[in-house]
Specification:
alpha/beta, Rossmann fold, 6-stranded parallel sheet, globular
C-alpha cells in the first residue's frame, strides 16, 4: 500500500479528469490543482498562424510549471493533493503538433523546467474508447460556446498517443482504469468509492482496474 500524498489523474480529453479530481478532492478533504484551461491561442488561431501551435504549447508548459512549482512548498492545510493532470503528459501534445525545430527547443525547455518538480506518489489513467470520447466531446460542444470539437482523425490519434504514453510510463505507480462501463460525469458515489479502494491498495509498478458492470 502506498503513502499517497500527491495523486495525479490523467486521460484523454472528454474522459472526466477534472470532475473526478474534484470528487476525490472532496472525498479526501484534499487540496485540488486543476489544469489552467485559459489559453490565449485558440484552435482557430493555431490553424491560421504559422508558429501558433508552438506558442500554445509553450503557454501550457509554463502555466503547468507554475502550478507544479507551488507543490514543492507543500499544502500546509491538506494531507493530500489531487491534480487533474500529469506534468509529463505535456510531451504528448508537443510530439503531435510541433515540427522538428520547434520540438528541439521545446525539449530543452521541458528538461530544464521538469528537473525539480515533485513527482506524484500515484497516477490514475482513465482509459476510454475513442468513439465514447467523441460522443462526449460533441455533447460538451453543444452545451457550450465551442464551435466544433476535435476532428475524428485527430481525436483517434490523440487517444492512441495517450495510450502509448501510459503503456510505457514508469515515473510513478500507475493505475489504469478501463472506463467503458463507468459514468464519466462521476456522479455515482459507488464508482468513486470503488476507485478509492483501488487507489488505497496500489503498489509499485502498473496495475489495471476493470470495474464490474452493474
Amino acid at each position: 500500500m502506498l503513502d499517497t500524498r500527491y495523486l495525479a489523474i490523467e486521460g484523454p480529453p472528454g474522459v472526466g479528469k477534472a470532475v473526478l479530481a474534484e470528487r476525490l478532492g472532496q472525498r479526501l478533504d484534499a487540496g485540488l490543482v486543476l489544469d489552467d484551461g485559459e489559453n490565449p491561442f485558440s484552435a482557430e488561431s493555431r490553424a491560421r498562424r504559422a508558429g501558433a501551435a508552438f506558442q500554445a504549447q509553450l503557454f501550457h508548459l509554463l502555466a503547468r510549471h507554475r502550478q507544479q512549482d507551488t507543490l514543492r512548498q507543500g499544502d500546509l492545510f491538506s494531507q493530500v493533493t489531487v491534480c487533474d493532470y500529469l506534468f509529463d503528459k505535456d510531451k504528448i501534445f508537443a510530439y503531435l503538433t510541433l515540427d522538428d525545430n520547434e520540438l528541439f527547443i521545446y525539449q530543452r525547455l521541458y528538461d530544464l523546467l521538469s528537473r525539480d518538480l515533485p513527482a506524484p506518489d500515484a497516477v490514475v489513467y482513465l482509459q476510454c474508447p475513442t468513439d465514447r470520447l467523441r460522443k462526449r466531446l460533441k455533447e460538451r460542444a453543444r452545451r457550450s460556446s465551442e464551435r466544433r470539437g476535435r476532428d475524428d482523425d485527430d481525436l483517434a490519434e490523440l487517444n492512441d498517443a495517450f495510450n502509448h504514453f501510459f503503456f510505457h510510463y514508469a515515473g510513478a505507480p500507475l493505475l489504469v482504469v478501463e472506463t467503458s462501463s463507468l459514468d464519466l460525469d462521476w456522479q455515482d458515489d459507488d464508482d468513486v468509492e470503488d476507485l478509492l479502494r483501488q487507489i488505497e491498495h496500489m503498489q509499485q509498478g502498473t496495475q489495471y482496474y476493470v470495474p464490474r458492470q452493474r
